[in-house]
Design goal:
two-stranded antiparallel ribbon, 8 helices, 6 strands, about 40% helix, about 10% strand
């Protein structure tokens, strides 16, 4: 599923740009994982949905695009497959990086992006590997209801640290993972949350890892 299939319409105005995509009917990935998160079942459906989301991102990457802002609500599970939404920060490989991009939602920001933002590098360039990290973080969050990194164990007061402090801590690549509530799934996600980009699987490989998890 490439970007062209969305039949998106875009344009610009004095201070920015706009993008309109078709309305997709179906639950978000967050909603697909709700029974699992609440402990009422649905693990097989969650694993299939997670793998489908990975494949959708893999198709996006194959078309030469990086999403750059994957979140639990940015995959819509329709009868025709998972459709991605919110391409505000998306970037086409080989073109100039998007001006103003600061790494997406901080809790799902890959350490290398967090470090680049903290250094003041700009514009920061997202990658397939940073999408892999965010995607694994999305699935961890959808399964557990919490962010993938354990700020409390690291001695970080999220309220006192604020987004910048959290970002700087993530940039170290040393924060521990949050306690597992579904160990088999979260063990499959850990390689995709590796601090070193080269150690992460592709999003297509992550889909295969998910399908090997026992419900």
């Amino acid at each position: 599923m490439g970007v062209a299939e969305y039949e998106a319409v875009s344009g610009s105005y004095d201070s920015g740009s706009w993008l309109v995509t078709p309305w997709f009917t179906g639950p978000s990935t967050w909603a697909v994982f709700t029974p699992t998160r609440e402990g009422t079942g649905g693990r097989e459906a969650a694993l299939r949905g997670g793998a489908d989301l990975c494949r959708s991102v893999a198709d996006l990457h194959a078309s030469g695009w990086i999403h750059a802002d994957l979140q639990p609500s940015h995959g819509i599970h329709t009868p025709a497959g998972v459709r991605l939404i919110d391409f505000a920060w998306s970037w086409r490989e080989g073109e100039e990086p998007v001006s103003g991009f600061s790494g997406g939602i901080v809790h799902l920001m890959a350490p290398e992006l967090a470090a680049a933002v903290a250094r003041g590098d700009g514009p920061v360039t997202p990658t397939r590997a940073s999408d892999t990290y965010a995607l694994a973080g999305v699935l961890w969050t959808c399964a557990s209801g919490g962010w993938p990194l354990d700020y409390k164990a690291a001695g970080i007061d999220r309220k006192a640290a604020g987004p910048d402090g959290i970002r700087d801590a993530i940039a170290t690549g040393r924060l521990p993972f949050a306690p597992a509530v579904w160990p088999e799934l979260q063990d499959a996600l850990r390689p995709a949350l590796a601090a070193v980009p080269e150690d992460r699987p592709t999003v297509g490989e992550l889909a295969e890892l998910l399908l090997k998890v026992e419900p």
